[in-house]
Amino acid sequence: MPIGGDAPIAVQSMTKTDTRDASATVRQIRELEERGCEIIRLAVPDKRAAESLAAIRRSVSTPLIADIHFDYRLALSAMEAGIDGLRLNPGNIRDSEHISKVVAVAKQRSVPIRIGVNAGSIPADYRPGTSLAQRMVQLAMDQIRLLEDMDFGLIKVSLKAFDVAATVRAYRMIAKKTPYPLHLGITEAGLPWAGAIRSAVGMGILLNEGIGDTIRVSLSSHPRDEVSAAYEILKSLDLRERGPTLVSCPSCGRSEADVVALAEAVNERLQNMDKPVKIAVMGCVVNGPGEARDADVGIACGKGRGVIFRKGEVVATVTEDNYLEALMAEVARIA
Amino acid sequence: MPIGGDAPIAVQSMTKTDTRDASATVRQIRELEERGCEIIRLAVPDKRAAESLAAIRRSVSTPLIADIHFDYRLALSAMEAGIDGLRLNPGNIRDSEHISKVVAVAKQRSVPIRIGVNAGSIPADYRPGTSLAQRMVQLAMDQIRLLEDMDFGLIKVSLKAFDVAATVRAYRMIAKKTPYPLHLGITEAGLPWAGAIRSAVGMGILLNEGIGDTIRVSLSSHPRDEVSAAYEILKSLDLRERGPTLVSCPSCGRSEADVVALAEAVNERLQNMDKPVKIAVMGCVVNGPGEARDADVGIACGKGRGVIFRKGEVVATVTEDNYLEALMAEVARIA
To answer: Is there a single domain that holds both residue B204 and residue B284?
Structure first.
């Protein structure tokens, strides 16, 4: 799984099961793999969680990252168990001798280390008087230098805060200072609706500037929502393709069809479709034909009748009771 | 309702009722007002819809905009009915004589006109060979000149496409060319989840650059979702305040509490709260205390016990069965 350079921006998430429960964790990893999650991180809070990693690693194929705080010995155990990457929080492992022990093994096994700075865990006495963005960058740079001094270069960096503006400033700064791949995230972003929007704003700004090599959306919900949000962010900037894209009009006092219900029904039918097809569901003659023509398959609904387009050509005129089936038949033809 | 300059970025939406049905439309306008919608647009597709506007205008206080396509006479009727603004789509009213009749009345009544360009309705023969962004900008500039030539300056401009990158490029271009307030939107963005994320990416990029004076999120759903998404976008960049903000951790294999369920319960209790209070619900000792300390009220849950913070100070240690009530008691104290 290449990260950085010309590689596609990778989507990651994190299991929310108890890592000590290997079978529940493997089950959740499989759910994430089905959604297209490409890197999966697991919290390793204690020795028993670390011991569980070997069995988990054997059961799945996706690259797994161990998330370590405080105790460097857990990082050593995780690598012993065959984990593919480490995330260390420099705010929480401050002893450079401990870090050097981890780095020696990581180097030997070619295990990448992400320096994962998080606004909430910057030591209170660290560079007071400087901005949050500056402190995040500086803390990461301290750690980068430590790893570089040990001739270790398999580094990724993240600088996450809930504050979108501070996060954006921090990533922009570090992108100028280091060549390492950047893992983007807005931390503790909240419940799915507000959290996905907040993450989309922050990551959208950075991705649009070419900053970011892998992303994780943090949501208080099942991690499948994090993967879904991540792909929607990437799709909106044409950075990745994943499944169908639905263009649908918001409906208004001009609509002559229940275009919201039609869009929902189409979306429901598309749930298990993998192919990146663009489908337009439009409610009137104002923008309808234009948008429907531009999609792979589209319908522009008028008064009791709608026109179906395939790759810009009118292929059928259908009556209202047949909108859904006629549209889905064209979608099936394209897919 | 000032738009542009130093005015706060205004949130708008559009009714999805049949405008000819005045009472249903007034009901939906009131639902939108309750959510904080500051400008409400109504489609005026025909004479009967235009005739309905006077009764609607008398029943509510929020500024109302009439959305007009094709028939300039509907714009004249809407102004007659006391509407506060017009949205005209230059792709759909191309006769400059008709536009001049509308402008004469708008000038006399000080009714602002939004030149609302939409990718789906650009005439097929308009400047072929140029990019979508260029065509949207050029079409708007043509219309701006027409209005300026009539000494009309109460202009707003929007350039909406489903394509986020093209929309961003178009707004950046026009922001350099004109001093008029810009209304931002990503058109036909789809169902709420994907549509809100797509809109957040597009508008987030622009707002972060200082581009945009009023926003409308277009979603295929009840317009209250559009208002909610708009405020979440603006809140994430600290451009507006609106109700509480929930900082909550995504939970992971380290969590010793069901932080997702707690965050959902807190959110449920906050539904009717107007005050812009920042509340943190955190699941462990890694980032928990740091984030909880940074919020107005926060809880950092540990093993069976949690610590409650108010404005950075520990105010209580509570047992697991009391997390929700103890947290909400502090929230009530702050509010």
So the answer is: no
Domain boundary among B190, B215, B236: B236
Interface with chain A: mutation pick from B220, B259, B267, B282, highest number of A CBs within 10 Å: B220
| Tokens describing residue B332 | 């009530």
Report the number of distinct structural domains present in chain B: 2
Nearest by CB to B120, from A236, A260, A290: name it: A290
Q: Do B254 and A122 make contact, defined as CB atoms within 8 angstroms?
A: no
Say how far apart CA B47 and CA B73 lie, in whole Å. Answer: 9
Check CB contact under 8 Å for A196 and B198: no
- pTM for the structure as a whole: 0.97
Pair A265, B220: CB distance under 8 Å: no
CATH value at residue B291: 3.30.413.10
Among B167, B277, B287, which would you mutate to test the A interface (most chain A Cβ atoms within 10 Å of its Cβ)? B287
For the sheet with B85-88, list strands across it.
B155-160, B113-118, B85-88, B64-68, B39-43, B10-14, B214-216, B183-184
Question: Does the residue A190 lie in any domain?
Answer: yes
Share of chain B above pLDDT 90, in %: 85
Mean pLDDT over B26-39 rounds to 97
What's the Rg (C-alpha) of chain A?
23
3-state secondary structure of B146: helix
Q: Which of B217, B236, B255 is the last residue of a domain?
A: B236
- Identify whether residues B310 and B250 lie together within a single domain: yes
The model's pLDDT over B262-291, given as tens digits with 9 standing for 90+, comes to 999 999 999 989 899 999 999 887 777 888
Residues of chain A contacting residue B229, judged by C-beta atoms under 8 Å apart: 193, 197
Backbone angles phi, psi at B88, to 5 degrees: -115, 140
Distance (Å) from the C-alpha of residue A145 to the closest C-alpha of chain B?
24
Buried b (16+ CB within 10 A) or exposed e, A286-320: bbbbbbbbbbbbbbbbbeeebbbbbeeeeeeebeb
How confident is the model over B142-201, as pLDDT tens digits?
989 989 999 999 999 999 999 999 999 999 999 999 999 999 999 999 999 999 999 999
Residue range(s) defining the domain that contains residue A14? 10-236
Do A29 and A94 belong together in one domain?
A: yes
The verdict on B216 and B251 lying in the same domain is: no
- Phi, psi angles (nearest 5°) of residue A194: -65, -35
- Note whether residue B2 is domain-resident: no
Are B225 and B128 members of one domain? yes
Given a cut of 70, whether residue A91 has pLDDT beyond it is no
Report the CATH number that the domain containing residue A78 is assigned in CATH: 3.20.20.20
Q: pLDDT for A285-330, tens place per residue?
A: 777 788 888 899 999 998 899 999 999 899 999 999 999 999 999 9
3-state secondary structure of B123: coil
For residues B291 and B298, the answer to whether their CB atoms sit within 8 Å is yes
Q: Is residue B213 situated within a structural domain?
A: yes
Q: What is the pLDDT of residues B35-94, one digit of tens each?
A: 999 999 999 999 999 999 999 999 999 999 999 988 999 999 999 999 999 999 866 777
**Token digits of residue A301:** 């609904």
Closest residue by Cα to residue B257 from B193, B301, B217: B301
What 8-state DSSP symbol labels residue B121? G
